[in-house]
């Protein structure tokens, strides 16, 4: 006795042989409906829920954690010793404070200010001179490199190279950012 | 029964039973697609779970105007491609490859996990199982893009438009893929000995 499934299969294959696309479509869909479906293993939903719950809990952990007590900086013996040394040295240096203040006051006189201004100006001019020398060198190199490009042929070659590299870059970007496709999957 | 959009709205309110209902409602189509694409039941279960977890995480981005099944299929499509890209190529034992294309025992394969129709005579049930296995084997040999379209269109009843949305392919390409895939399936079924009865009888006589 022919089963209903066999009938459907025969209908589909016969329609396919005779190029009756619509009939083949309908028969194949009916055949898939009639055949046993592919079911997920029992308890699939429970496992998904468990996994979801676990992930939610894991994500919630940082927020749920009690605030960690911050360890005081001054509990370390080394920090305390260093701090004491710093305070001592500050105390000792206070002894030289008047002398230092007098020296600074001497600098702030009109003569001292003029001296600082002139020495700064000289240093700045030296720096400017060095920078101009470097710029001049760079200009010479640039001119030497640009001379061959002044010819139309070289300019054309350069523009062509630029265009090719732009196209290559664009294609590469297209490949990298393209939507997921089966083309690159070996299944 | 709640609509898909209502279910999603409830799930977004944090109701776990809504989450669960989404899984129960779509576990079969999602698993069916992923399993047929991967051809590995264990990996398929893991990936199908991941699809739902990803969907839950991004449920707020779901557009209620779209079908929830299409949205889940899209996540499954992306997850499957990513998985197959990451997966290192496997070596196939020669014995396994030599038995392909026959009705040999295929325990452990995808075809072996097909649901069993229990309210039938043993002969009919055996024939159905054989036919389903043959069809699964034929599907497994299709190119991935054909396979995906076949599963969505013929097995899950998705429309051309939904397949376009999920795969990102133009309508013409989807139609062509389906047409070619159906032809290939028919050819493979015929090669495996499932030709129409009339053709088989004609060959015998």
Detailed description of the structure:
The complex is a heterodimer of chains A (187) and B (205). By secondary structure, chain A is an all-alpha fold. Chain A contains seven helices and no strands. Chain A has helices spanning 4-17, 21-34, 44-64, 77-93, 97-107, 110-146, 152-177. Chain A is 75% helix and 0% strand. Chain B is mostly helical and 205 residues long. Helix content of chain B is 69%, strand content 0%. Chain B is built from ten helices and no strands. In chain B, α2 (16-38) crosses α4. The longest helix of chain B is centred in the N-terminal third of the chain and has 23 residues, at 16-38. Chain B is globular, with a radius of gyration of 19 Å. The relative contact order of chain B is 0.10. The model of chain B is unreliable at 92-108 (pLDDT under 50). The interface between A and B is large, with 42 and 64 residues.
């Amino acid at each position: 006795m022919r089963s209903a499934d066999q009938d459907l299969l025969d209908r589909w294959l016969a329609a396919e042989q005779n190029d009756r696309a619509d009939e083949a479509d309908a028969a194949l869909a009916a055949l898939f409906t009639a055949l046993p479906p592919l079911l997920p293993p029992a308890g699939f939903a429970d496992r998904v829920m468990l996994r979801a719950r676990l992930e939610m809990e894991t994500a919630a952990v940082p927020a749920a954690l009690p605030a960690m007590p911050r360890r005081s900086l001054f509990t370390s013996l080394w920090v305390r010793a260093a701090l004491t040394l710093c305070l001592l040295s500050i105390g000792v240096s206070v002894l030289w404070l008047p002398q230092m203040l007098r020296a600074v006051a001497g600098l702030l006189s009109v003569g001292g200010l003029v001296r600082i201004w002139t020495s700064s100006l000289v240093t700045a001019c030296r720096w400017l001179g060095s920078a101009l020398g470097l710029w001049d060198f760079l200009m010479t190199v640039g001119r030497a490199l640009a001379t061959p490009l002044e010819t139309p042929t070289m300019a054309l070659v350069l523009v062509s190279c630029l265009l090719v590299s732009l196209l290559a870059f664009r294609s590469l970007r297209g490949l990298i950012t393209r939507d997921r496709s089966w083309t690159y999957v070996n299944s | 029964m709640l609509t898909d959009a209502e279910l999603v709205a409830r799930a977004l309110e944090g109701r776990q039973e809504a989450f669960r209902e989404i899984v129960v409602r779509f576990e079969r189509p999602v698993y069916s697609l992923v399993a047929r694409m991967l051809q590995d039941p264990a990996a398929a279960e893991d990936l199908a779970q991941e699809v739902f977890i990803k969907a839950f995480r991004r449920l707020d981005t779901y557009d209620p105007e779209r079908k929830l099944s299409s949205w889940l299929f899209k996540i499954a499509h992306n997850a499957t491609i990513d998985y197959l890209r990451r997966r290192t190529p496997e070596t196939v034992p020669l014995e396994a490859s030599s038995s392909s294309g026959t009705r040999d025992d295929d325990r452990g394969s995808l075809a072996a996990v097909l649901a069993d129709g229990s309210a039938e005579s043993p002969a009919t049930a055996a024939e159905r199982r054989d036919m389903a296995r043959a069809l699964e084997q034929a599907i497994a040999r299709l190119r991935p893009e054909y396979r995906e379209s076949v599963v969505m269109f013929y097995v899950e009843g998705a429309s051309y438009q939904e397949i376009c949305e999920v795969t990102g392919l133009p309508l013409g390409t989807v139609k062509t893929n389906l047409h070619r895939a159906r032809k290939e399936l028919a050819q493979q079924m015929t090669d495996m000995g499932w030709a129409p009865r009339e053709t088989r009888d004609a060959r015998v006589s």
